[in-house]
Amino acid sequence: MFGILRTALALLVVAGHLGPVERIGPYAVFGFYALSGYLMTAILRERYGYNAAGIGRYAANRVLRIFPIYWVALALSVVLLWLVGESAARAYHESMGLRLPATEVWRNLLLVLSIDTGTRWVPPAWALSVEIFYYAAIGLGLSRHAPVCALWLGASIAYTAYLNLDGASFSYRYFTVPAASLPFAMGAMLHHLRGWRAYPRRLVESRALLLLLALAFVANGGPPRSSGAHPLRAGSSISA
Q1: Considering the chain, what is the average pLDDT of its residues?
Q2: What one-character-per-residue DSSP string does the chain give?
Q3: Domain segments of the chain: what residues?
């Protein structure tokens, strides 16, 4: 089931970047966050454990899964930028370019990125930076115990409600690390829910997962707003 969901979400991301329906991409990104929250909690609790050796193996696995293929994409992007030139690259996407300070070179290499990073050689890589933050938080035990995970989920719901009621810009509700807390917490909580004996495991792993993905989409993936109390890059494109 997870393979089908991943494929569907990946296709939605591509459609969001290439197609006319802008909101498809953000929905899919939040879906990936929810899946990651579930899977990272599951592998830590069931495979690696929370001792020093287990967390070390978990961290090494994450690094090897993310950085080699990211660096390949980064190298290809830099070559393409060199071929098309700075002006053409900036015209295509405002964050793409070759000229950047040394601090941003290291941020690009080590995936310490945000939507406000002046130049991103791989523009969508900000989402990987968000994922890495929550991989680390989950690895340190944020979703280890159900009561703590429930508190995390409750705080995420409250924060998301506050952003929406306070008129926060779409950029603030989508691109930032705190904005991703809700789908990650939903996915992590689902792992704990599957252990409840009152519910068949297969039911929880299928219908409940789809329900939580839908809730994550509705809660924080709404239409962009041009202004708000939190004007973080209020004019940013959804395709960033």
Answers
A1: 82
A2: -HHHHHHHHHHHHHHHHHSS-TTHHHHHHHHHHHHHHHHHHHHIIIII-SSHHHHHHHHHHHHHHHHHHHHHHHHHHHHHHHHH-HHHHHHH-TT--S---HHHHHHHHHT---TT-S--SSGGGHHHHHHHHHHHHHHTTTTSSHHHHHHHHHHHHHHHHHHHHTT--HHHHHTSTGGGHHHHHHHHHHHHHTT-TTS-HHHIIIIIHHHHHHHHHHHH-----S--SS-TTTT--TT-
A3: 2-220
pLDDT digits (tens, 9 = 90+) for 170-199: 888 889 999 999 999 999 998 998 766 555
This prediction's pTM: 0.83
Is residue 25 within 8 Å of 239, Cβ to Cβ?
Answer: yes
Torsion-angle region of 167 (φ positive above 0: left; ψ -120 to 50: alpha; else: beta): left
Counting every residue written for the chain, the total comes to: 240
Which residue type, as a one-letter code, is found at position 204?
A: V
Comparing 182 with 227, which gets the higher pLDDT? 182
pLDDT in tens, 89-115: 888 888 888 888 888 899 999 999 887
What CA–CA distance (Å, rounded) separates 156 from 188? 12
